[in-house]
Amino acid sequence: MSYETIIGLEIHVQLATRSKAFCADDASFGGAPNTHVSAVSLAHPGTLPRLNLKAVEYATRLGLALGCEINRHSTFDRKNYFYADLPKGFQTTQDKNPICLGGALLLQGSEAAIRIHHIHLEEDAGKSMHDQDPQDSLIDLNRAGVPLLEIVTEPDFRSAEEVASFMAEIRRLVRWLGISDGNMEEGSLRCDVNISVRKSGETRLGQRCEVKNVNSMRFARRAIEFEVNRQIELLESGGNVEQETRGFDVGSGTTYSLREKENAHDYRYFPEPDLPPVVLQERFIADIKAGIPPLPRELEREFEITHRLPARDAALLTQDRDTAFYCTRLLEIAGKKDFAKPVSNLIINKLLPWADSTGTPLSECPVAPAAWIQFLEMIENGQVSASTAYQRLFPALLENPGADPGVLAAGLNLLQSADSGFLEQIADELLARFPDKVAEYKKGKKGLIGFFMGEMMKASQGKAEPKTATRLLEERLK
Ligand code: ADP
Ligand code: MG
Q1: pTM for the full model?
Q2: Which atom number of ligand 1 is nearest to the Cα of residue 206?
């Protein structure tokens, strides 16, 4: 019997606001434990929340980018539960009226769309550490109250690959929009994976399990694989899948039961009395919409379709906004010249490694974009060979960022010679030096042109411009 895998995600995105969701405490990652905490984060009696406008802006920005309907009137609720890293005894979240509804995202490199059920705003809890002290659990409340967006998808995924592709697209998008650093290692992007299986052809959904807090794509893959096999084995042996929350054990690559799924009423959700509804004006939404840059998917398509770049190049060039915008800028300067592939090669093979090694975004590269286009033109015109350009002129330009590439190449003696006088003289000397080869060539061994070109390069110290040199040699050999 074959089975189909069904997956839905609940993704937590930590927002890159300076302060927390409901108070002015520092929201940045790290810091000595319990230093980003005021009376509000500590939930002292009588403290009151005040909503961070930036968090609302970020939620709206993501919602618009994902084609969600922006809820003009959203509200906050209390989700009540007891845990030591949640001093208030409830999480402030949006249950009944979340800020974004619907929407969808296309998977990277595919036309398959994953529908989004809704996105809501909430706050993070503190962090419990059970492995720092032999006796006690330690609690760091720096993270308590940091704003999160929870993206809840429809159960539209059919494989771990689709999940990985979606997470990669979400990470690229939140970074692109400047609303989160999207860093999975630091927990800025976490996901709960809901998994069920059903027999092929079955239309109803199977019973699902939720695997909590899978914090890397590699683990998500392994957790899904394990869980799918576990559920299929259960069903095949006549058992039932129980709806429950499970954890993933990294060491063994297995999932284990944490608790039976809490029914929603266990949390006793009720409206948060201390926060008024969030009422969004049309003007506020329009301003945010106007500020959204062209999205990665659009630029990726433009690179691929308008500029006819290979899909792999288009994907690499749109991994981050800075690189993509830089590429767009170079292509604009190149104008009508068909330079897309050379521009792409220059960025992918040379400029991105330079940016990585120096920690400088491409937009801050000291060499002007127009100088890079001139650099590519010099290769195209044969003024400098591609290998000399990349090996010698490229680093020279970065060391002398203000210099004119032409002047710099001349100063370094890198220019190829298309000067016929100079090349004719070398060609004549060569033919005189190798009469046997000339004779062989004339008898039909045309491949010897390669030999003559090699000698030509040697004699000119690599400066012979190949097209002119070949033409001069062929004329003489006839
Ligand atoms: P709850 O309210 O219990 O959290 P939801 O209906 O909100 O449940 O769904 C939570 C997540 O589980 C969503 O991402 C949804 O896509 C996913 N999901 C729901 N049913 C299934 C199923 N049968 N198989 C896989 N995922 C599912
Ligand atoms: Mg849920």
Answers
A1: 0.87
A2: 23
